[in-house]
Structure formats: structure tokens, C-alpha cells
Amino acid sequence: MSYTALVTGASAGLGEEIARQLAALRVDLVLVARTERRLDAIAMQLRRSHGVSVEVLAADLSETSDLERVAARLADDDTPVDILVNNAGFGVLAPFERSDAEEERRLHEVLSWAPLRLSHAAIPGMLGRGRGWILNVASVAAFTPTGSYGAAKAAVVSLSRSLHARYADSGVHVTALCPGLLQTEFHERMGPHLPALSRLAFADTRRVAREGLRAVYRGSPVVSADWRYRVARPLTWILPDRLLERISAAGDHAPLAR
Q: Is the pLDDT of residue 93 over 90?
């Protein structure tokens, strides 16, 4: 039986790595990101390396028309999508009191509204086929007071838990993957605003992708990726919010977790 996965934010970082690991499993792909040129290059490489079908869908998920095009692709029963990976995201550098309201809107539309909308488009077909997997990339920031970024990621975790509880018995599994720091373009784009951190704080992107795919296959509603963040997560239950905020949002309050 062949499977097809749609991956958002697939042109770099964790999204690209998840797409590569799915291709290695002989899963056909629909790659979604804003930059069509980069998607085309990745698609060509994956077709040659793994012999899978790869479709490219350039879209900016903060734009309603683009988001609806992706939703329509997910709802197309003639070319069904079995696996949805909601990975697209970015961070707002400025502190909340100085941030641009339009950027805050875009942040929440990409980080929390887009996963909800795309899951809403995908689940009816998955239920009809009796199988489906949705991997929502959240963040360990969801468990800490990290401003609007953490709030958006907390919404993703809550949505994933709710959908998993509602649909797991029907064969549709939903998982929130919560990485910490990853050595990807997500943090490189923050440039000098990102505080100097030990490389020991960064998790391996390949391992995080692998853990996320295993978790959604096994039916885990939430997984904190990488052992160091699983060890640290209980601290979020006992440390004061003011201390957690200082640890989690250093520098210009840029989010320190994916």
C-alpha cells in the first residue's frame, strides 16, 4: 500500500528532514513552502534518490488564498493525503511591547491557525479511509511563558491532544512534536539577536524528525523531542514563571526553542 504525505515548511530545516525521512520510507510527498525554487530542487533530489512521487505546492500560509489552496489539496479524495505534517513557522524578534501587530497576526496564523485549518481539511477524508496521521510541530516553548510564540505553540499542543483523543479510535492519530533548540535556519535567521548558546543545547535535527515520525505512528499525543528536553520538561511544572521567562526568552525575547 502506498502512502502520501503533505509537509509544510518543507524547504529547509526540520520540515525538509522529515520529508527526506518519509521519502526514504517510500512515502510519496507534497512539499509546501513559500520558495518554489528551493522546493523544486529538493523534489528533484528526492525523486532521484528514492524513486518517490513528489509534488510541489508553493504557498504562503499567512495568506488566506494560499492556505485554502493547500486545504483543497488535502481534501481532494482523488489524490488522498495519508500523512499531514504541519511544520511551517517563524519567530518575531521584537519584544511584545515593541512588536509589529501585523507580524503578530502572521505568527499566529502560520503557527496555530494554519495547523487547525489544514487538519480540519484533512481529517474528514482520513476518517472515511479509516487511517491517517497528523504530526503538528509545536515546541517546548508551549510549556513555558515565552510570549506570543509560546502561546501559539501551546494552542497547537492543545489542539493535537484534543484531536488525538477524539479520533484515535477511528484510526486517525494526531501528535504534537515539541522540539527544543535545533541547528536550522529558524535560528540562523535571528542572526545577532540570538544569544550565544552552547552547542550542547542544540538537538540533532535528524533525531528529532525520527522521534516525531515514530511518535505519530505509535499514537502518542505529545512528545518532547531529544532526551535533554525530556529531562528538563518537569522543571516547567515547578519553577516560577518569572524564572522560566528569563531562561526561555533571553536576548531580544526571541524564542529559544523551535
A: no
The Cα–Cα gap between 53 and 51 comes to 7
Query: Is 4-248 in CATH node 3.40.50.720?
Result: yes
Of the candidates 3, 2, 1, 31, the one whose C-alpha atom is nearest the C-alpha of residue 133 is 3
Q: Which residue bears the cell 525538509? A: 16
Look at residue 200 and tell me whether its pLDDT is greater than 80: no
**Distance (Å, whole) CA 218 – CA 185:** 29
Instruction: Strand 172-178: give its sheet, edge to edge.
Output: 54-58, 28-33, 4-8, 83-86, 132-137, 172-178, 222-224
**Amino acid letter at 165?**
A
β-strand pairing of 172-178 with 222-224? parallel
Q: Which residues are known to be catalytic?
A: 149
pLDDT band for position 181 (50/70/90)?
Answer: low
d(CA 112, CA 155): 6
9 close to 21: Cβ distance less than 8 angstroms: no
Angle, helices 205-218 vs 13-24, to 10°: value is: 60
Res 204: pLDDT: 84
Enumerate the domain spans of the chain: 4-248
Q: What are the pLDDT digits (tens) for 51-65?
A: 999 999 999 999 999
Q: What's the helix, strand, coil split of the chain in %, to 5?
A: 55, 15, 30
CB under 8 Å to 59, separation ≥6 — which residues? 32, 33, 34, 66, 67, 69, 70
